[in-house]
Amino acid sequence: MKLFRIPLWLWLVFLVAGVGYAFHPFALKQMMKIEQNRLLAQPQPTLSTMPQRLDFTKQMADLTYLASEALAGRGTGQPGGAKAQQWLVTEFAQIGLAAAGTAGYLQPYQPTTGKAQLMKGAANVLGRIEGTDPTLPMLVLTAHYDHLGVHQGQIYFGADDNASGVAALLALARYFKQHPPRHTLLFAALDNEETGMWGARMLFEQELLKPAQIKLNINMDMLSQNTDKQLIAVGSYHYPQLEKPLQQLQQQSSVRLLLGYDRPAWLVGTHQDWTFSSDHREFHNRAVPFVYFGVPDHAHYHQPSDTVDNMDPEFYREVSETLLDAVLLFDAS
């Protein structure tokens, strides 16, 4: 009787696989460190402060209302979410944006899967400023207005996440209403980001937008917490044409703008990848270029303590002016 023998080549496969498995966690950590060093090697800001072009007093008033007890965390399907929705309609009209929804400024929809399918009354709020050159594709500026609402008797106020992005969206709309852009700008205050990015998804599923019409999505989500005065710009790894204007933006900002958080695990190990972490995901899934601006996660993220009192107003002002420069750069290119 012959004994079963394992070929030498198969022993070598087992050996290599075993060594690889043993060193895998170490390799991931090393790749993460390399990526962190790459980020920190990017240029430091050269400006001490940003110019004042946006109406920041009004912007802060908007943020304060959005993150108030009156709106109770803006949960989709909750009374606070409905109030936020109608307030945004009024603000869009007062700014003078052209209605761009399926029902005036609103785009009502009903999610069909997951926890979101139980939520009634979801709607995006959409407005346009027509560009001076109608042959150019549009820029779509997005910020989700929903947050966690009231949960187990506590209000999750969502000042940074994402009243900060919505107030910046409104400030930019007021600026460009007075300073007409070359590209048409769509201002989209989106619902249901916290429960599966349904608002962004429905822009395409209801065919309000077609990918071929869009030059770029600029998504704003969490802008007001000073985490070592860093602002992350996500997207240039996937769309290298964005790198040059974003590098120019680095030189025009007083905040530390870092290009990254968009590389896959096989390249950066355990470092965070935000490619699919907010509404820009639905644009990327359809091969529409995006840049996502946001701050690193902080202690108040998805906590009741995410309030106006815990934000940094001057940092938020500088970030908002940086976003204005970003839109101006992409509109000019």
Question: Could you outline the blueprint of secondary structure elements for this entry?
Answer:
Elements: H1 8-40, H2 56-66, H3 79-95, E1 98-99, E2 106-108, E3 123-129, E4 138-144, E5 149-151, E6 154-156, H4 159-178, E7 185-190, H5 198-205, E8 214-220, E9 230-234, H6 243-252, E10 256-259, H7 265-268, H8 280-284, E11 290-294, H9 313-332
Parallel strand pairs: 4-7, 4-8, 8-11, 9-10
Antiparallel strand pairs: 1-3, 2-3, 3-7, 5-6, 9-11
Helix pairs in contact: 2-4, 4-9, 6-9
Give a summary of the structure in a few sentences.
This is M20/M25/M40 family metallo-hydrolase. The chain has helices at residues 8-40, 56-66, 79-95, 159-178, 198-205, 243-252, 265-268, 280-284, 313-332; strands at residues 98-99, 106-108, 123-129, 138-144, 149-151, 154-156, 185-190, 214-220, 230-234, 256-259, 290-294. With 333 residues, the chain is an alpha/beta fold.
